[in-house]
Design a protein that fits this description.
single chain, Jelly Rolls, six-stranded antiparallel sheet, 9 strands
């Protein structure tokens, strides 16, 4: 059994193409032996994730704030308490349209340790 506190998890700014004002905390990942990656994203006011699609699906639960989730042809308003399923190869982008940060829990199935954590671990090792 592993127990982690969200407040003890490092937060990483995602400076990836198409993203603006996005940070992430990796709560659960392959480094713990998990096959499910659980993350908390924070999208700053006016920020957005990239418009993307990929093989894995996402399950998203909005914790705080409000925004819009876009696909190629659809835009839907989202708010705290909403649950969203994004299927494999479905285009998606999340945009903060509120006046405070938009926070959401997001899961995906993967056996990979996130790139940010690999870099963080190697730069903070004692060896």
């Amino acid at each position: 059994m592993i127990i982690v506190s969200e407040k003890d998890i490092p937060e990483f700014e995602l400076n990836r193409e198409g993203m603006c004002g996005v940070k992430v905390k990796y709560l659960l990942h392959a480094g713990f032996g998990a096959k499910l990656q659980v993350r908390i994203f924070t999208v700053e006011v006016g920020g957005h994730t990239a418009m993307e699609k990929h093989a894995h699906s996402h399950q998203v639960f909005v914790l705080e704030g409000e925004g819009i989730i876009k696909s190629k042809n659809v835009e839907k308003r989202i708010k705290a308490g909403d649950f969203i399923y994004i299927g494999s190869w479905e285009y998606h982008q999340i945009i903060n349209v509120g006046n405070r940060p938009l926070k959401f829990l997001c899961t995906k199935e993967t056996n990979q340790i996130p790139e940010e954590l690999r870099k963080f671990t190697s730069s903070n090792s004692l060896s």
